[in-house]
Structures are given as structure tokens and as C-alpha cells.
Design goal:
This protein is of the alpha/beta class. The protein has 20 helices and 14 strands. The strands form 2 sheets. The chain has an 8-stranded mixed sheet. The protein is globular and about 75 Å long. The C terminus is likely disordered.
Length: about 575
């Protein structure tokens, strides 16, 4: 058997990229071992630091991205086989196509990283650590880029690390992870490689210093504590269908106090079982339970009622009766409540084209509306119908192919708070919630239907995006999912209460409405873009003081590529 030391440079690059992609997938929610992220990129960066050819770097980026997406997005197999009814062959082909969606970014980064490290040695690692999260930021802005599996998502359960998202979003957290991995590689090179040892040490120290500054910021700001109280009502036995926990009774029977202008009581309703959920709207049984749960929540003093995506049966135009019943409930509520509901809205009255919308209602009618702008590729539209013709009837179905994009996201003004709403997949788009925060949204709401993910890890992964959005904007996020997971998330990304998949009930939250803006909510990805531009300019025009041409067998033991500085 051939030993790894005798592998060709191209084979080593492929293997290193694949290993790093697999390790990063282990750190993400599908397997969820977050500490692995801090060493996951070492094999890939180690091979790039040797200065391989651009072709070899291209191959390493390809294998990294492929293994990252195949293992972190394994839930797609469940969706394709269980819910779309595809056979193994067709599901495998579709799965690979989906995994390839984000590969162009990793491939380009691998090629550029090989070129920059070949030119600058270990110095290229610092530039690469910046460009990797920058490529993720670009991918998040492209409809077909499949903005999933960001390394920064692995740190949702570590508030001190996740707090860095205030500065540059989830990509700033990814930057910290990449810098730590680059630090490991630079220090290892200083120990193993004679030429450029001083430069490698300096690169490692620089990466460590930047990381220390960012994490210090995270430790300081993560000490904030939100003053919120959550009570969960869950469906119990037939004799006690809505069990109210004892510790919550006092909180929800108390009358409004002098602080009510600065606080809000909201109720998130989850009334469907996974087996009842499809891409289509709610059925009658779920609607009856939703109305009953809503009536009880409003009676407990809820000032804002939240229904999930697909909660409204039919379209608003074709079935107005549930809307009239809901408005009657709002009119009879002690607090004069409002409601946020997910519903399908006909674009032209014919039903041939639909908006997937969020509506803000009170007893008088509609106060605001958001039409989903970021549609799901292959779920709500077909990027290339001539190529993916088989998807229409298997996944999108009759509802999905009629979906139409809405306009730019905007806020909705309620009586007590200004709301920013996103629909399902829009939670994965960080610039959307940042825009809502800039427009003055005090509370973020995400309505979802994750029923077609049932039996996979996707629902938990989807929830994690909302947790990161809360930290990026320092807003509470109320996530209402038709069959789960429904959750209340505070500005530190912590889950204060949740209803699991298939668990029917209500989450009641009493929370403050004061907000503070973050750097990310003000300027978005601009700092990362400027830092990336500076890195590209430095790596492109910075000349080395001691240039050594790599040999044909570069990277082999005993023939390292030297490091140098201008």
C-alpha cells in the first residue's frame, strides 16, 4: 500500500481538502461537535501553505466544498427520498447537484490560496483567512449559492464567540475560526520548516493577536442578560388538553403594569403534526386547534399573536372565513391584540401566481405585509426548468411553481412595536435581517414550515440561523414553525423556550422592546469587503524580498517553499 508521504501533490491536496470538509461538517449542527471547527481547516491550509500549483489548489477547494456540503446537508437525502418520492438513483443525482451549488466559491478560494501561498508562503495564510469568510458572504447574496454550512454557525452555543457576529455577522465568527486554524498551521510550519521560520512565527502571532482582540470583545458584550420570561403551554391529556405550568400562572394572570410601554407579550402558536404538513397550507384540523390555542393565549394577555408559515388554510382571497374569525378574536382580546400570520396571497386574483406572505393584522384589518423575496431554489421556483424538468411535480408541486418574488424587505408598524418579518428560508440570509434592523425593526419574526424536513437534522440547523440573526442585530427573534421547532430567542442567541417537532402548544413570552444597533446592522458586510479587498491587493502586488522558485516536486519533504516579506 502506498504511504501518504509518497502520494502526489495533487492527491495530497484532494485528501487534505476532503478531510477538512469532513471535519468542518462534524462541527456543524448535523453532528454538532463545535470544538472540531478550531482544527478542521488545518489539513487543507497545511497543503496550501506548501505553495502547490493553482490546479492543485483548485482540486483541494473542490474536495473541501464537496465533502462539507455532502455531510452537513445530508438531510436533503431524506427530503428527496421520503417527501419527494425519488428513487435512489435520481435522489443521488439531485443530492450531488445541490451539493455542487456552493462549490464555485470554495474552488476559487482554493486556487487563489495556492497561488498566494506559492508567492508569499505563510503570509498568504492571513489573506486566505480573510477571503474564505468573504466568499461565504458572497455566496449568501446569490440566490443559487445555497447559503448553508457556514463555519461560524458551529459556535451558536458559545455566546462569547458568537457575540463577534455583532461586528461582521456570522462571517466574522467564521473569520475567527479561520484565523485560529491559520495560526496552528503557521506555528507548525515554524516548527517543521527551516526557511521562513521567523515569518511563519510572525504570521501565527498576528493571527493569534487578531483573534484575541475579537474574542475579548465577545467576552465583554456577551455578559448582557435579557430580561424576558417565557411560559410554555403544551397539549396534554384529553381531560387537560392545554396544560399550564404552575410557575407561569402568576406571570400571565397579572395585569399590565407601568412598564408595559417598554415590554411586549407575544404568543407563538404551533398546532400541526409533521404528518399533516406539506408545502401546501394548513388543513381544517390544525386550523381549529390554532384558533383554540390562540383564544386561550389572548385571554392570558398576549398582545401579539404569531402563526407560522402555511398556518392559514388556502389563500386569503379564496378562503376569507378564517381571517374573519381571527379578527373577531383580536377584537375580543383584553389587550386589543394584533396578529402576525403566514399566508398565501394571490397576486392577480386568479390564483395562478402567489406570494408567500406575512401579514400583520388587528381587528380593523391589515396593517402591513411582507411578501417573500428570497425564494427557495427547487422548492419554490426552478432555476433552469429545461434542465430540472423532473423536479416540478416531485418537489415544488402545484403550489411551488406558482410562487412569485416579493419586493425588498420592509418593516411593519404595530401598535406597540415595529416588526421585521422573514419567511422560512429567508432566515439564512443575514443581509435581510440587517436591513430590517436598519429600518427600525424592534422585533424580528420568522415564520417557517419545516414539515418536509421531518426525520432529519434540517429543522435544528434552520433554527440555528435564527439564533445567529438575533446576535447580529441584537433583537429578539420569535420563530414560529408549523410543526416545530418553534422558539423564543434572545439577543445573545440563547433559546429561552421552544416547542419541539410535533409538539402542539403555545409559547408565551414577556420581553423588553428596547434595542441597540450593532456595527453589522448599520454597515453589513462592508468591513469584511474592505478587508478582503486589502488582502487581495496585498497578495497581488506585494513582492517578496527573497524569492525562491518552487521545484517541480514542491511540498515534498526536504524541499519546502520559503517564506519572505517585502
Amino acid at each position: 500500500m502506498t504511504s501518504p508521504a509518497r502520494w502526489s501533490p495533487a492527491a495530497r491536496c484532494l485528501a487534505a481538502g476532503a478531510l477538512s470538509g469532513l471535519l468542518m461538517a462534524v462541527a456543524l449542527p448535523a453532528i454538532d461537535v463545535p470544538m472540531v471547527a478550531w482544527i478542521a481547516l488545518v489539513p487543507w491550509l497545511w497543503e496550501l501553505a506548501k505553495g502547490p500549483t493553482v490546479r492543485q489548489g483548485f482540486l483541494s477547494g473542490f474536495s473541501y466544498g464537496l465533502f462539507l456540503h455532502l455531510f452537513s446537508c445530508a438531510f436533503l437525502w431524506t427530503v428527496l427520498t421520503r417527501h419527494a418520492g425519488m428513487g435512489p438513483a435520481l435522489a443521488s443525482a439531485s443530492f450531488v447537484v445541490a451539493a455542487l451549488a456552493g462549490l464555485p466559491f470554495q474552488v476559487l478560494i482554493g486556487a487563489f490560496g495556492a497561488w498566494s501561498c506559492r508567492r508569499h508562503g505563510a503570509v498568504g495564510l492571513l489573506g486566505l483567512a480573510v477571503l474564505l469568510p468573504a466568499s461565504d458572504a458572497i455566496r449568501a447574496r446569490m440566490t443559487t449559492g445555497f447559503p448553508w454550512a457556514f463555519p461560524g454557525m458551529s459556535q451558536a452555543d458559545h455566546p462569547a464567540v458568537l457575540a463577534v457576529a455583532e461586528l461582521g455577522g456570522v462571517h466574522a465568527v467564521s473569520l475567527v475560526i479561520f484565523l485560529v486554524n491559520a495560526c496552528w498551521v503557521a506555528c507548525l510550519r515554524a516548527h517543521r520548516v527551516t526557511e521562513g521560520r521567523t515569518v511563519s512565527l510572525r504570521v501565527g502571532m498576528a493571527a493569534a493577536a487578531i483573534t484575541l482582540v475579537l474574542l475579548t470583545f465577545g467576552v465583554v458584550v456577551s455578559r448582557d442578560h435579557s430580561q424576558a420570561e417565557v411560559v410554555a403551554w403544551r397539549i396534554g391529556t384529553e381531560s387537560d388538553p392545554l396544560a399550564e405550568p404552575r410557575e407561569g400562572r402568576a406571570a400571565w394572570s397579572s395585569p399590565p403594569d407601568s412598564r408595559r410601554d417598554e415590554r411586549l407579550r407575544a404568543a407563538l402558536v404551533q398546532a400541526a403534526l409533521p404528518g399533516e404538513v406539506s408545502l401546501g397550507p394548513s388543513r381544517g384540523s390544525s386550523l381549529s386547534l390554532q384558533l383554540d390555542l390562540s383564544r386561550r393565549a389572548l385571554g392570558a394577555g398576549a398582545e401579539l399573536l404569531v402563526w407560522s408559515e402555511s398556518a392559514y388554510p388556502g389563500t386569503i382571497g379564496s378562503n376569507p372565513r378564517p381571517l374573519r374569525i381571527l379578527r373577531k378574536l383580536l377584537a375580543d382580546s383584553p389587550a386589543g391584540a394584533e396578529a402576525v400570520i403566514g399566508a398565501l396571497v394571490e397576486v392577480d386574483g386568479s390564483g395562478r401566481r402567489l406570494h408567500n406572505s406575512v401579514l400583520l393584522l388587528d381587528r380593523t384589518g391589515m396593517l402591513g405585509r411582507h411578501d417573500k423575496d428570497y425564494l427557495v431554489p427547487f422548492g419554490e421556483y426552478l432555476p433552469a426548468p429545461w434542465l430540472f424538468f423532473w423536479v416540478e411535480q416531485r418537489i415544488t408541486g402545484a403550489v411551488g411553481t406558482r410562487m412569485v418574488r416579493g419586493g425588498p424587505p420592509g418593516t411593519m408598524q404595530g401598535a406597540r412595536v415595529r416588526l421585521g418579518a422573514t419567511v422560512c428560508y429567508e432566515a439564512v440570509v443575514p443581509q435581510m435581517t440587517a436591513s430590517l434592523a436598519r429600518q427600525g425593526a424592534q422585533l424580528l419574526i420568522n415564520v417557517s414550515n419545516d414539515g418536509w424536513y421531518h426525520g432529519s437534522t434540517a429543522a435544528e440547523q434552520h433554527l440555528r440561523f435564527s439564533r445567529v440573526r438575533a446576535v447580529e442585530t441584537q433583537r429578539f427573534v420569535l420563530r414560529s414553525a408549523h410543526s416545530g421547532i418553534t422558539a423564543v430567542i434572545d439577543p445573545r442567541g440563547r433559546i429561552l423556550g421552544r416547542l419541539e417537532e410535533g409538539e402542539r402548544g403555545v409559547l408565551l413570552v414577556d420581553m423588553p422592546t428596547e434595542v441597540r444597533d450593532t456595527l453589522y446592522s448599520r454597515v453589513g458586510d462592508l468591513p469584511l469587503a474592505l478587508l478582503s479587498l486589502a488582502s487581495v491587493l496585498m497578495l497581488t502586488w506585494w513582492r517578496r524580498s527573497s524569492v525562491e522558485t518552487p521545484s517541480a516536486t514542491e511540498g515534498e519533504p526536504g524541499e519546502p517553499v520559503s517564506d519572505g516579506l517585502a
